[in-house]
Design goal:
heterodimer; A: 116 residues; mainly beta; four-stranded antiparallel sheet; 11 strands; B: 113 residues; six-stranded mixed sheet; five-stranded antiparallel sheet; 0% helix; globular
């Protein structure tokens, strides 16, 4: 969905490096989410935000931090990357007032992160 | 432990046939479910949702069935087409404000021409 963009799309980094993944949306949605996807597993929620001043931990927040700089931007940081953080990362947005369903989430194309 | 999972990791069907993808959940308090489709190299896309006060909901070529007694839901795709080839996930709402969706591991649907 071109309305939700993620940068970079692919990143290879080394253990111990700090990494930031960025998400931008033009949908005007208040709610934004970060998920990771591992092979053979479902999406796991890392953090979510319901507005600029709201940050909440998901299932697997350890080792990650986020920043909601504006309604349209939600960044995910790995302060000191480790190999088991190698995964596909998705950003998503939602707005209970719009969408096919009140709680439909619109996903970005994903960022493939490899930590060596 | 609680889980959202799928019975079959891979499903192969002939083009034109109907497909049925299953999902089991174990949290009886879950009140809302969504099916997503994820094509290769893309993020998941919403297909259809259902609330726990319903047992069936139909969309365009898709139907979701919910059986709360056995905590099972299924996605039926009529007249499956090659473009339906993807991984399908069920997601279960466990949050009080639809803020915590738990996703199953997915079923890969292969449509044979």
């Amino acid at each position: 969905d071109a309305d939700v963009t993620q940068t970079p799309r692919n990143r290879i980094t080394k253990t111990g490096k700090r990494i930031m993944l960025e998400c931008s949306q033009t949908k005007g949605h208040d709610r934004m989410y970060w998920y990771r996807q591992d092979p053979g597993l479902g999406l796991q929620l890392i953090y979510y935000s319901f507005d600029v001043k709201d940050i909440n931990k998901g299932e697997i927040s350890d080792g990650y931090s986020v920043s909601r700089q504006a309604q349209a931007k939600f960044s995910l940081s790995l302060e000191s990357a480790i190999p088991n953080q190698t995964a596909l990362y998705f950003c998503a947005t939602s707005d209970p007032r719009t969408g096919l369903a009140a709680n439909e989430q619109f996903f970005g194309p994903g960022t493939r992160l490899t930590v060596l | 432990g609680e889980s959202v999972g799928l019975h079959l990791p891979t499903l192969s069907v002939q083009e034109g046939d109907n497909s049925i993808i299953n999902c089991a959940y174990s949290n009886s308090a879950s009140d809302y479910f969504i099916w997503y489709k994820q094509e290769s190299g893309k993020g998941p896309q919403f297909i259809i949702d259902i609330r726990s006060n319903m047992d069936k909901r139909q969309g365009q070529r898709v139907t979701v069935l919910l059986n709360k007694t056995v905590k099972h839901l299924s996605l039926q795709i009529a007249a499956t087409q090659p473009g339906d080839s993807a991984v399908y996930f069920c997601a279960e709402n466990r949050g009080s404000n639809f803020n915590k969706f738990y996703f199953g591991s997915g079923t890969k649907l292969n449509v044979k021409p």
